[in-house]
Predict the structure.
Amino acid sequence: MNADRSTVSDAALVEAARRGDMRAFERLYRLHSGRVLGLCLRMSRRQDVAEDCVQQTFIRAWRNLAAFEGRSAFGTWLHRIAVNEVLSYARNHGTRTEVSDADVEVEEIAATGHGGSGEVDAGEVMDVERALTGLPEGARHVVVLQAVYGYSHEEVADMLGIAVGTCKAQLHRGRRLLRERLGMQELES
């Protein structure tokens, strides 16, 4: 029910922004920028690149607001734009950068929609974040979008421009590597 309120709120803000209400768009930015930053950071593994991609995501969203049809949630539409921005940045700059611990920030568990019950061990969260950043690029992108953000194989394949079978194989590879790095017997989906 809370998601319905958010969707209705997003829809009303989108309509107001389409009519030129900058405050409505600013509110959309405030509601969604944290999750978009988390996605960009996990995919790019660099704070500076992630911040640039977030900025470009919202610029593109503003320019293309009229094209948003509402067939998906506004946040999903933003994530697709953000994924394209990260992939475009990597293509244009030919970057595959190594990550240091200083480059990795942990997005609050509440922002990812996980960890609703019980306390969260910040050390365990950091271990998972560090393991995610160490995954090969293809596997990392699929794991972040599918396992962390909850997109379906079809949605992830569409966002990344890959086949569904490739998406499934990358997810399997990513989970196997995460299990190895975290010393786990099983990794929940």
Notes: The chain is about 70% helix and 0% strand.
